[in-house]
Amino acid sequence: MALVPMKLILDEANKGGYGVGAFNVNNMEQLQAICDAAAETSSPVIIQVSRNALQYADKGLLAAMVRYMAEEKYPHIPMSLHLDHGPDIETIKECVALGFTSVMIDGSLDYSTKDEKGSHPVRSFDDNVAITKEAVEIAHAAGVTVEGEIGTLGGIEDDTVAGGVHLTEPDEAEEFVKQTGIDALAIAIGTSHGAYKFPVGTEAKLALDIVDDVHSRCPDIGLVMHGSSSVPAHMVEEVNKYGGKVPNAVGIPTNMIQDAIGRGMRKVNIDTDGRLAITAAIRKVFVENPADFDGRKYLGPARDAVRTWIIEEMKAFGTAGHADDYKPVTLDDMKKLYAAG
Ligand SMILES: [Zn+2]
């Protein structure tokens, strides 16, 4: 089937009470691994690309590959193509034109400038509302889903550097949804981007009561958690065992993500784990078979490692088995629904 609006996937997950992984891609092998895992577990899936990934892989190339997977290879699997951390209106327009079925406008930070510490400054509530509203107008006119963000995350993802961490205020979240007309909302509950989410020796902690509160105020909004990699110990050990240097990496335990899903979280963003899986597999081949110089000999095992791990995630989030639950909705259908208000 054609790529579906992300709103469809999140609405269905809301009805079914499960979560859906949103996995970042930069190349063919990652995309194959994600789609193979979705097909094997019969899961709907969100494939997301960051602004930097669009540059790395060429504008349009990733979109064309994702469309091929949805339309030709796995036409029975609902898939969405989502822009992760859209920094400005220009990028939103580009992605809508490229056939993305969902975009995030990250109005929580001002990406056009950096402060003296090298961080993007936090936008005011009103400025966040203004840019998010503009993105909603553009995207909804094409039937495309919009994710906004309120509050800021810690950590580093690409060059997304938060100028301070502010957990989401439920009052503000409710008002933000009302004023912007977004479909999905990223909330800050203590997760952060990257492989070092909590200081060494401390316990992982999330403000899960914020999920309860925002979900009860905005029950139809697809809630999103960013920075949700588990950073599995076996992956980190493997990376370090074969010459890597990723000491003291700590992620979000899977049972905490499951707890968040139980409280209404619907989209679970994961990037770091995929990077670790790939790096561990490639390092292993390089150490064990130093004579190999055929890229397929190490990219193949990397792809297998990502697929194996995503299958586990799809089962853990409750996504597995839900691919055939519902009828696809097209961007045109959504366009009419949005126009009708
Ligand atoms: Zn993020």
Keywords:
single chain; binds zinc ion; globular; 341 residues; 46% helix; eight-stranded parallel beta barrel
Model description:
- Dihydroxyacetone phosphate binds at residues 194, 227-229, 269-272.
- Pfam families: F_bP_aldolase (PF01116).
- Catalyzes the aldol condensation of dihydroxyacetone phosphate (DHAP or glycerone-phosphate) with glyceraldehyde 3-phosphate (G3P) to form fructose 1,6-bisphosphate (FBP) in gluconeogenesis and the reverse reaction in glycolysis.
- It is a single chain.
- By secondary structure, this protein is α/β, with parallel strands linked by helices.
- It has one domain (6-332): Aldolase class I (TIM Barrel, Alpha-Beta Barrel), CATH 3.20.20.70.
- 46% of the residues lie in helices and 15% in strands.
- It has 13 helices and eleven strands.
- The chain has helices at residues 6-16, 28-41, 51-57, 61-73, 89-97, 125-140, 170-180, 208-217, 233-241, 254-262, 272-288, 295-316, 331-340; strands at 20-24, 45-50, 79-86, 102-105, 145-150, 154-157, 160-161, 184-187, 192-193, 222-225, 265-270.
- Strands 1-2-3-4-5-8-10-11 form an eight-stranded parallel beta barrel, surrounded by ten helices.
- Helix 2 runs parallel beside helix 12 (295-316), helix 9 (233-241) packs parallel to helix 11 (272-288) and helix 11 runs antiparallel to helix 12.
- The protein is globular, with a radius of gyration of 19 Å.
- The protein starts with 5 loop residues before the first helix and ends with a helix.
- Bound molecules: zinc ion.
- Residues 85, 157, 193, 226-227, 269 line the site of zinc ion.
